[in-house]
Amino acid sequence: MYYKGVVHWYAHRNLVVILCFDSLYDEKVHCLAIIDECLTFICYPDLRRVSSPVQEITDIWIMEEYNVNDSWIKKFTIRCSPIESPLAVWNDRLLLLQDERGLVISYNLNSDKVEEYKLHGYPGSLRIIVYKESLMSIHKGSTQV
Question: CB within 8 A of 9, min separation 6: which ones?
Fold first, then answer.
C-alpha cells in the first residue's frame, strides 16, 4: 500500500508487523507498529482455522496519528460472512470486500449496513478498480503530460 509517500507491507516471523520503505528520505525499512493477529488495518478470521468463535466478525483498526504506535484504535466491527479479501474503498465510506464464497459484499462505514451483490468469482480472484472521471485529456501519441 502506498500512503504518505511511503510503501507499506505486511511481514511476519514470530510477530506480525507493518513495515514501510520511505523512498524519499532514507531508503531504510521501518517497523511502524508491532501488532498481534487481531491488530491490523483490516482484521478478519484466518480461514485456515477450523473452529473460530469470531468467524463472522471483521474488525477495522485505524492509526489515528501516523507513525504513532499507541494511536491504533478499533473503529469498526463488521458482522458478515467470513472475508476472503478486501477489494477497495469507494467514496471514503463504502468498503468493498470478497467473502469466502467469492461473493462481493459492501460495508457502509456511515450506516453500518452490509449489502451482498450478485457478483462473484473464485475466492481471492476478484479485483476492483475505482475510476475517477477527469477533465484532463490525454493526447494520443504524446510523451508529455
Answer: 1, 18, 19, 20
pTM, entire model: 0.56
Whether 73 and 64 have beta carbons less than 8 Å apart is answered as yes
- φ, ψ at 69 (rounded to 5°): -55, -35
Looking at the structure of the chain, the number of domains it has is 1
Flag whether 107 is in a domain. no
Q: Give the sheet arrangement for strand 83-90, strand by strand.
A: 83-90, 94-99, 103-108, 114-120
Per the CB < 8 A criterion, the answer to whether 6 and 20 are in contact is yes
For the chain, 145 residues long, give each residue's pLDDT as a single digit of tens.
556 666 666 566 665 555 555 555 544 333 333 333 323 345 555 444 454 544 567 777 777 777 677 777 777 788 877 777 777 777 777 888 888 788 888 889 889 899 998 877 776 677 777 777 777 777 776 565 5
Q: What residue numbers bound the domain in which 31 lies?
A: 1-36
- As given in the structure block, the three cell numbers for residue 69 are 504506535
| 13 located within any domain | yes
- Residue 18 in domain: yes
